[in-house]
């Protein structure tokens, strides 16, 4: 999976209306893993791992409307 800067834009500014900006929002999955302890007992663990980046957009802060968020999967 290719890593993406979660603070960066996912589309160039010239592709969006002038009062909107895009940003990458990281999403996560919870993965369950099983291990065998030194005593032979099964131990379970849950780990949060990055899964994908969702391109989102919102109105720029200087816009007169309230910020609206929407998302579409890359």
TrEMBL record:
Residues 7-56 form the Spaetzle domain. It comes from the Eukaryota. Gene3D superfamilies: Cystine-knot cytokines (2.10.90.10). Pfam families: Spaetzle (PF16077). InterPro entries: Cystine-knot_cytokine, Spaetzle. This is Spaetzle domain-containing protein.
């Amino acid at each position: 999976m290719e890593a993406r800067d979660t603070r960066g834009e996912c589309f160039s500014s010239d592709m969006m209306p002038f009062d909107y900006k895009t940003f990458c929002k990281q999403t996560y999955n919870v993965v369950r893993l099983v291990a065998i302890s030194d005593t032979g007992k099964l131990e379970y663990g849950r780990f949060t791992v990055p899964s994908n980046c969702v391109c989102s957009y919102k109105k720029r802060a200087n816009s007169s409307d309230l910020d609206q968020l929407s998302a579409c999967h890359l």
